[in-house]
Amino acid sequence: MNHEFFVLIIMTQVRGIGRILRAYTTVEGAGVRLHRAFGTYEVPQFDPFLMLDDFRAKNPADYLAGFPWHPHRGIETVTYMLAGSVEHGDSLGNAGTINAGDVQWMTAGSGIIHQEMPKPVNGRMGGFQLWVNLPRANKMMDPRYQEIKSNQIPVFSPKSGITIRTISGSINGVTGPVREIVADPEFLDVTLSPDMFFTHPVKTGYTAMAYVIGGTGTFDPEEGHHVANRDIVLFSNGASIWTRSFEKGMRFLFFSGKPIGEPVAWRGPIVMNTREELRQAFREYEDGTFIKKGHT
């Protein structure tokens, strides 16, 4: 096959850039200052994903107030720590600490009440929280946790200059420890040395996005769109993504998942399909019937 023709075929399968958004500052919890990559304004463009928050911070005053007791229903929250720790506890009696490199994949399902309190370690704290929607058929499933320690996450280099932590999904035969999630997600932490190229296949029809957390580069084969720390790229459809790092290298989080395609009724920490379901959830929270019996 003619080499130029082969390259053309490959490039026509590469996902284009749908949107590039810049994370913006906001305040959540009891006064935690963070950067939001996307949220309610972008629904349903990122379906099945609802929100991505970046709570990396140098000043403890930005995060020590934490996220005191609050409810969740109808979603999953995914917390990934780079530095420091988050102490958590919930209404089901679970408690623990997520440290640097750890992941907590919490399925709120029918309802959970919990708190998350960030703490510095050696003066550092930072991480990310992704919200993943649940389809109507699973919104009232039993709550559960998948807590993954850093040393349980496989780290491999498909070639020199590329390092990948696979949290969920599979790449080059390496499968992440988070499994049996409704959205069939991929979650990769990819680090590229300077001037490196990287491609990765993505299932047709799945939503795919990349959030840059260090360095600079491009996800555009024509290199017309440059990205840097706290830029999020939403890809259009296609068979794969393509990226190239620039002179400082680049690190990014990559996510893909199967869209749900259902109505979204969202208020605060609860996401259902209708406003009546939202009202019912908050009535139950107020009258003490939010946590369903037998859900442990």
CATH class: Mainly Beta
Number of strands: 24
Give the amount of beta strand, in percent.
over 45%
Shape: globular
What gyration radius follows from the Cα positions, in whole Å? 19 Å
Structural class: mainly beta
C-alpha termini separation: 59 Å
Order of helices and strands: HEEEEEEEEEEEEEEEEEEEEEEEEH
CATH third-tier fold name? Jelly Rolls
CATH architecture: Sandwich
What percent of the residues sit in helical stretches (DSSP H or I)?
A: under 10%
> Total number of helical segments?
2
Summarize model confidence as the mean pLDDT.
93
Largest sheet: 9 strands, antiparallel
Number of domains: 1
Unreliable stretches covering 5 or more consecutive residues? 1-10
